[in-house]
Design brief:
Layout lengths: L18 H54 L9 H8 L6 E6 L5 E4 L18 E7 L2 E11 L8 E9 L1 H49 L18 H48 L3 H32 L7 E4 H11 L1 H6 L3 E5 L6 E4 L1 H18 L5 E7 L8 E6 L30 H11 L3 E5 L12 E6 L2 H4 L4
Parallel strand pairs: 7-9
Antiparallel strand pairs: 1-2, 1-5, 3-4, 4-5, 6-8, 9-10, 10-12, 11-12
Length: about 475
């Protein structure tokens, strides 16, 4: 169990917290605090228990003496036989003091003025009462009895009281405490040992998980088994499995990105190399110009491909990007303005329809801008000359969500291929337009990261019967609408 001991870290670093030690502290601290308290309570209980039998004996002595005094009261002559007094005062190691106070307050028997006279109460007459007193600095247990004689007047009451020291009582209390406390000195270490052993057994599954993780190969990202996992450890294993799954997806994405980039860049780079070799051997100026134009087109395509690959990589790893409140109409105007020169070269009517007020969504600027660029670029690429492309942002109350649309009057996308065009490098069959096949993959991944939905429809505004056109719609969830309020 060395893995959870309190081991010091490197120099200057704080010691790590020990789960085992902390739980053990919380379990043993109350035990060690309550143990002295239990000793105190046991002592008080033992004292109370020790008082009971001796109080009964003292009660009997006071009652016997009261009967004798009451019998001699009519003659007003009080004399206790010596033998009776010796029996009465026989009490082992304890010292007893006897006091009998007469009707007129005179001391008839016993120790005169050595014991305090208790107050007489009507409810205490005829009942032996006990109290603790101190006489000449010594502790006594005293019992007293007020008796009422068959005479008239205030002098009809007599007091009998006997007090004894606490030797026998303390001895009995100490014997009780020893009988209770001494076994605890054996039980307490055993309890600590059992707590330590039980806690070690309870934390053992953590060691098992640690051994399983350490024994795994570096490339093994499969989920940990949860068959025999304790209920308290199950959330940790589940969270770890979820993290392993995300890590595996991230690694697969990186591998796929590297493979796609290598595959897609191989062909244009080979073409560029061939053009460079031809240009170096070419002597005709017109042929050199043609080769230079091809080099320019090739580099532009390669640059665009690299940018799209990087954009796709960003959409698949959005955790490094910060989402914030963005105006979708501003992004739509900016992207549309950037494509105006290209639209003019192809004689395409490129327009934008957005509300007069801002339409806010929670998103990432680079990702949403790249998504809109790909939508507009695809529309311009497949729209013939004299065609029309419209970028639209709609947050009207009739719609349940904020909608971004890009429509064109190109050849459209067959229904059977509308799910396939979102795959990487997929190209619609029969198309002659250049492209990498990454644009719609970037659109879909960006929409997914923003909890939005992408759908493809025929353009209902297309006026060409042989060209149904395409309407690309990105619908943001209702929570984005709440940002406008």
């Amino acid at each position: 169990m060395a893995w959870y001991k309190r081991n010091p870290l490197a120099s200057g670093q704080q010691q790590r917290r020990s789960l085992f030690g902390e739980i053990l502290d919380w379990m043993l601290a109350p035990l060690l605090i309550l143990w002295p308290m239990s000793i105190g309570v046991t002592y008080l209980v033992a004292k109370s228990i020790a008082n009971d039998p001796f109080d009964h004996i003292l009660d009997d002595k006071i009652t016997a003496l009261a009967q004798e005094v009451a019998a001699q009261a009519p003659s007003n002559q009080f004399a206790i036989p010596k033998e009776a007094m010796e029996i009465l005062l026989a009490d082992g190691t304890d010292h007893l003091r006897v006091q009998v106070v007469g009707k007129s307050g005179e001391f008839l028997l016993g120790d005169e003025r050595t014991l305090p006279i208790p107050q007489r109460e009507a409810r205490q007459i005829g009942v032996v009462n006990f109290r603790d007193i101190v006489v000449n600095g010594e502790d006594f247990r005293a019992g007293h009895l007020w008796i009422e004689l068959p005479t008239v007047g205030e002098n009809r009451f007599m007091l009998i009281q006997i007090a004894e020291t606490l030797g026998k009582r303390d001895s009995l209390a100490n014997e009780i405490i020893k009988g209770v406390i001494l076994p605890q000195f054996v039980i307490l270490p055993l309890a600590v040992l059992l707590v330590w052993f039980g806690l070690s057994r309870g934390i053992a599954p953590l060691n098992n998980v640690l051994d399983i993780i350490r024994a795994r190969k570096p490339d093994d990202l499969s989920a940990l088994q949860t068959t025999d996992t304790p209920e308290e450890l199950l959330p940790v294993i589940t969270a770890l499995n979820e993290q392993l799954e995300r890590l595996e997806q991230t690694i697969d994405t990186q591998k796929r990105f590297v493979a796609d980039a290598a595959h897609q860049l191989k062909t244009p780079l080979a073409g560029l190399r061939m053009q460079v070799e031809l240009l170096s051997d070419e002597t005709d100026e017109a042929a050199k110009l043609r080769s230079l134009r091809r080099l320019k087109v090739g580099t532009e395509r390669s640059t665009r491909l690299v940018n799209q690959l990087l954009a796709l990589a960003r959409t698949e790893a959005p955790s490094v990007l910060r989402f914030e409140k963005l105006d979708l109409t501003h992004i739509a105007r900016t992207v549309t303005r950037d494509f105006v020169p290209e639209a003019m070269n192809k004689r395409i009517d490129l327009g934008v329809e957005v509300p007069d007020h801002p339409v806010y969504v929670n998103g990432q600027t680079l990702m949403l801008t790249e998504m809109m660029k790909n939508l507009v670029e695809n529309a311009l690429r497949y729209t013939p000359e004299e065609g029309c492309v419209t970028v639209r942002v709609d947050d009207s109350p009739q719609r349940e969500a904020i909608v971004l649309e890009v429509e064109d009057d190109g050849p459209g996308i067959p229904e059977g291929e509308r799910n396939l065009v979102f795959d990487r490098f997929y190209r619609v069959l029969g198309t002659s337009e250049d492209g990498s096949g990454l644009g719609l993959a970037i659109v879909q991944e960006t929409a997914h990261q923003h909890d939005a939905n992408v759908s493809i429809h025929d353009n209902p505004k297309s006026t060409h019967p042989d060209r149904p056109g395409t309407l690309m719609r990105v619908s943001f969830p209702p929570r984005h609408r709440q940002m406008e309020d």
